[in-house]
Write a structure and sequence with these properties.
five-stranded antiparallel β-sheet, globular
């Protein structure tokens, strides 16, 4: 697999389209940080790492749906920077997603954070994905 982050985002996207409650993916530190940000911003119910047969474990993500109309909390999740074309942004160039309604997940020198946190910390980095 050449792009594990795109694999995680695709698994989440496919699970939402199929109406699944839980999605599983091989765990890594970067994937755990992405799941942490999605949890903190209210896009997923919960996440946990289950130690299994592989050394890294399995990342289990509980997806969030509206209880009344069963619509998912994540409307769109898309990869921006990819192995073939990395997308970096300085503090001034950090993109706004849906005019501030969505989030951009950015990998910076101070860790993985959202676009708003990166602007507050005054750091730029690699724009991993957009979520809204």
């Amino acid at each position: 697999m050449t792009d594990p982050i795109a694999d995680l985002l695709t698994r989440i996207r496919n699970a939402i389209m199929a109406g699944h409650k839980v999605v599983e993916a091989p765990a890594s530190n970067l994937k755990k940080e992405i799941a942490r940000i999605l949890f903190e911003k209210g896009y997923i119910l919960s996440y946990k790492v289950v130690e299994g047969e592989n050394p890294q474990g399995v990342l289990k993500i509980a997806l969030k749906y509206n209880p009344k109309n069963k619509r998912p909390a994540i409307k769109k999740i898309e990869r921006i920077s990819r192995p073939g074309l990395r997308q970096y942004a300085s503090v001034d160039e950090i993109p706004r997603v849906l005019n501030g309604l969505g989030i951009a997940i950015i990998s910076t020198s101070r860790g993985v954070m959202t676009d708003k946190e990166a602007k507050k910390e005054n750091v730029g980095g690699e724009v991993l994905c957009f979520v809204y």
